[in-house]
Amino acid sequence: MQELYQAINATFLSGGNVIIPTFSLERAQDLLFYLRQGVADNSIVRSTQIYLDSPMAISATEIFQRYPDMFAPDVTAMFHDNQDPFHLKNLHFVRDTAESMALNRITEGAIIMAGS
Predict the structure, then answer these.
(1) CB count, 10 Å around CB of 110?
(2) What is the dihedral of CA 36, 41, 44, 45, to 10 degrees?
């Protein structure tokens, strides 16, 4: 994960955005989980804007959130402590085409997780 965090920070330092291709199930949620950890331990800047640009991945994430007892015990414990492992302060769900196209105007400092 440190390699991912270093790549994100290096991209931001050079004035770019990080684009991460995602699938709707598991990869998107795994990335949200690890990005949340990176922000929590200051491996990633807290003010980083993160966009999940995939309606299906958004819906899948919402389903994952409804079943906290289906995860490994440590993740279930996070839910029970009111710590959603998929929630980040600066996370934006992008559901429609116009919002998705607007992401093209962000010039630097964002993580964009996108499906096809």
Answers:
(1) 19
(2) 100
Other CB atoms within 10 A of residue 32 CB: 23
Report the CATH number at residue 62.
Answer: 3.40.50.10890
User: In angstroms, rounded to a whole number, what is the distance separating the alpha carbons of residues 92 and 53?
Assistant: 8
CB atoms within 10 A of CB 38: 22
Sign of CA dihedral 72, 55, 47, 109: positive
pTM (2 decimals)?
0.91
Q: Which domain, by its residues, includes 9?
A: 2-114
Q: How many structural domains does the chain have?
A: 1
26: confidence class by pLDDT, cuts 50, 70, 90:
confident
Residues pairing with 111 in the sheet = 18, 50
